[in-house]
């Protein structure tokens, strides 16, 4: 079974919007074991969409076409599909009802144009999920099929996850179930993590019970994805649970979270569980740690605040760092302890270093001192990161949060 | 003249990397007046790349193929192009020399594999720009042409700007010169800006001297792009300069910068010119203003630092805000004045508000009070932003910086 993706929209070709939908769909297809050999972007043009669909159907078993299902005159995907199917469009009464209801509940009358969204090619069926106004369509053509989904990412994702992938796997005669989870790690390189898992990878190569893939994701950590496939959901879940447990055991405290949970969410949750409040003293990272923590819903329960001590005098006067060089272990320690005192927090993180491009106080760019205070005890470490200013700052943020995470876990 | 884009790389289809290269190339083509009707992603597979190139050449005048020029065995773009051209590959001595030099200057010996990068299809010419190890290629096929460029964005961009676009326009018989500049604005909606420019837009529609396009870019501002085309560079530059001056005059102080300059760079430059230092007191924005300012090279000359006063007690105890409600004009004013005092800065920005999703102190999510202190005088404004937590925070950051910008300009 292979499936192409056709993304519709002139704005994609003009570079006004980057087509992230095709990438996301490609990832879902790969996870489901469905081959995707080609992805195409085409503008809002009848003939070119029709040709793109015909060519794609000709060489592949299925096509997912994304976008062009809106209510305006240049949203022509459903019309073009009807032409490719060789059938007329008919108004779907249920969709009309639904649209009238949606507009009514917002106290607005429905523009006439929106009725276009209720048109369905004869022989096509609607996708059950319909989070927005645009219905998705399953359009059989001979033994092949076109799926039409909206270009709005969350609407598209709900339909692809809820209907399209399952339908493709059913058509592939693939009655098995695929499950996957992602372990997020920090503190070790990709090759280091791969080496820790080498026995496990060999074992899985032999048994085929599950697969493991790596994905370096910057400030989001190094992701390890475990995928299991089995005849039933229960069986797949069981294999996955066992394999995830095994991998998590091997990687031990390099694993900081599972799936979508970020490092800052983990740290906030650990602080909440332990009833501890956090203060920050940031020089190198310039407020980025605070900013990321404050981005977590409910951060206010544990986050007292921070001092961005960019100028040396702010370190001395606000945080009480002894006058002298400020890119040192001693300065980082004094900053963390000053943060606890000034902000009235139980624990603290402090960062000082050189983001680059130049050196500072004779210290090379990319060098940072990261300190954490927990239970009155301050620990400090020196790290050196490659990369540009932004990359150095981001690596410092996740590394400093990871230091605190490890110390909180040890409490 | 129309030109397709083919992006090569299995990782693009699997969704491990989002294909931003095609979007960028599409934008450059549109700016140069070259039509781009289709963009395709294909994996590292010989037959499928060959078919994609043949199909694209069949229906278009030119093809830009991006990626697959690296030194490893799965980088096969140049081999496939040679097959499509019906010619053998030959080693380009100059490229070999260059590669040996590049490795030599880094004190490394060159892996044998890298010699693959010196292979050029007979009849193709090298693109002059070569910022990395991979040479780009201009490959004529009959009266059509394939351009091969690397997948590394900065290498690709240098070649497309330096050679590909010019060559396409030459082939199109388009001897004119296109120039464009972008004015970044803040403080008015897209429709508001369009209305201010409506007479100008009508005039340009009539004369065709230049075109104007709008692009909402979130925290980067609302961009207004002016494009001029003329027979010579001098003429195009003159038209562009006049039109940009006209548009800038109409939009007046909504314009905060030109081209790539960000709001935070503008603010830092204004502070530097005036010899003023800046301090921040951030609650709602949680350190994001500091973080963005600290991301600018040379920020340390003017940025004293900040207090992230997330908890109310930090506002009271560190910044000296009077005890009471903290999502008010009064609190914002006291925070800004506290920042000047505590951080020893000449000017300050303060933010307090409700990021959401819930209300706080009876204030609706999306509401923010933004204060600025300049020359001992504090001004405060209330704003209300739509959107989720992250969007509200980002809008506050650029709006607060814009408030300060306007006050510094008035000094």
Short description:
With 411 residues, chain A is of the alpha/beta class. Chain A folds into three domains: 169 residues, MoaB/Mog-like domain (Molybdenum Cofactor Biosythetic Enzyme, Chain A, 3-Layer(aba) Sandwich); 82 residues, Alpha-Beta Plaits, CATH 3.30.70.2860; 147 residues, Maf protein, CATH 3.90.950.20.
Outline the fold blueprint.
The structure is a homodimer of 411-residue chains.
Chain A: E1 3-8, H1 10-13, H2 20-31, E2 38-42, H3 46-59, E3 62-66, H4 77-85, E4 89-91, H5 93-105, E5 119-121, E6 125-126, E7 137-141, E8 144-149, H6 153-171, E9 177-185, H7 190-196, H8 198-207, E10 210-216, E11 222-230, H9 233-251, E12 255-258, H10 263-274, E13 278-282, H11 288-294, E14 303-308, H12 312-317, H13 329-343, E15 347-353, E16 367-374, E17 377-384, H14 389-409
Parallel strand pairs in A: 1-2, 1-3, 3-8, 13-14, 13-15
Antiparallel strand pairs in A: 4-5, 6-7, 7-8, 9-11, 9-12, 10-11, 15-16, 16-17
Helix pairs in contact in A: 2-6, 3-4, 10-14
Structure explained in plain terms:
- 2 copies of one chain form a homodimer.
- With 411 residues, the first copy, chain A, is an alpha/beta fold.
- Chain A has 3 domains: 3-171, MoaB/Mog-like domain (Molybdenum Cofactor Biosythetic Enzyme, Chain A); 177-258, Alpha-Beta Plaits (2-Layer Sandwich), CATH 3.30.70; 263-409, CinA-like (Maf protein), CATH 3.90.950.20.
- Chain A contains 14 helices and 17 strands.
- In chain A, strands 2-1-3-8-7-6 form a 6-stranded mixed sheet, with helices on both faces. Chain A has a 5-stranded mixed sheet with strand order 14-13-15-16-17, with helices on both faces.
- In chain A, β7 and β8 (144-149) form a beta hairpin.
- In chain A, α2 (20-31) packs parallel to α6 (153-171) and α3 packs across α4.
- The longest helix of chain A is centred in the last third of the chain and has 21 residues, at 389-409.
- Chain A is elongated.
- Chain A starts with a strand and ends with a helix.
- The relative contact order of chain A is 0.08.
- Chains A and B meet through α2, β2, α3, α11 and β14 of A and α2, β2, α3, α11 and β14 of B.
- β14 of chain A pairs antiparallel with β14 (303-308) of chain B, so a sheet runs across the interface.
């Amino acid at each position: 079974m292979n499936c192409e993706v056709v993304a519709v929209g002139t704005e994609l070709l003009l570079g006004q919007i980057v087509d992230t939908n095709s990438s996301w769909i490609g990832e879902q297809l790969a996870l489901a074991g469905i081959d995707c050999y080609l992805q195409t972007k085409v503008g809002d043009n009848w003939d070119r969409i029709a040709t793109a669909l015909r060519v794609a159907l000709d060489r592949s078993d299925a096509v997912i076409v994304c976008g062009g299902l809106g209510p305006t005159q240049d949203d022509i995907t459903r019309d073009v599909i009807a032409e490719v199917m060789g059938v007329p469009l008919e108004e779907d009464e249920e969709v009309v009802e639904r649209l009238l209801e949606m507009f009514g509940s917002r106290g607005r009358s429905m523009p006439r144009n929106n009725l276009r969204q209720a048109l369905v090619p004869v022989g096509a069926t609607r996708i059950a999920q319909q989070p927005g106004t645009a219905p998705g369509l399953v359009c059989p053509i001979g033994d092949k099929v076109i799926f039409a989904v909206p270009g709005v990412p969350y609407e598209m994702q709900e339909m692809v996850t809820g209907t399209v992938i399952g339908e493709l796997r059913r058509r592939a005669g693939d009655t098995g179930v695929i499950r996957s989870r992602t372990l997020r790690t920090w503190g070790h390189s990709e090759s280091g993590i791969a080496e820790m898992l080498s026995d496990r990878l060999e074992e899985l190569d032999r048994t085929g019970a599950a697969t493991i893939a790596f994905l370096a994701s910057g400030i989001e950590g190094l992701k390890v994805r475990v995928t299991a496939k089995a005849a039933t959901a229960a069986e797949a879940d069981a294999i996955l649970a066992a394999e995830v447990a095994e991998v998590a055991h091997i990687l031990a405290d390099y694993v900081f979270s599972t799936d979508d949970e970020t490092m800052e969410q983990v740290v906030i949750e650990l602080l909440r569980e332990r009833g501890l409040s956090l203060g920050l003293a940031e020089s190198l990272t310039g407020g980025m740690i605070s900013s990321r923590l404050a981005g977590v819903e409910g951060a206010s329960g544990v986050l007292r605040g921070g001092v961005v001590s960019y100028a040396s005098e702010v370190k001395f006067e606000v945080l009480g760092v002894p006058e002298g060089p400020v890119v040192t272990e001693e300065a980082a320690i004094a900053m963390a302890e000053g943060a606890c005192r000034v902000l009235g927090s139980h624990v603290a993180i402090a960062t000082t270093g050189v983001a680059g491009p130049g050196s500072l106080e004779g210290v090379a760019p990319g060098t940072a001192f990261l300190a954490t205070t927990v239970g009155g005890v301050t620990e400090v470490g020196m790290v050196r990161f490659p990369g540009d200013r932004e990359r150095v700052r981001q690596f410092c943020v996740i590394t400093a949060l990871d230091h605190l995470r490890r110390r909180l876990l040890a409490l």
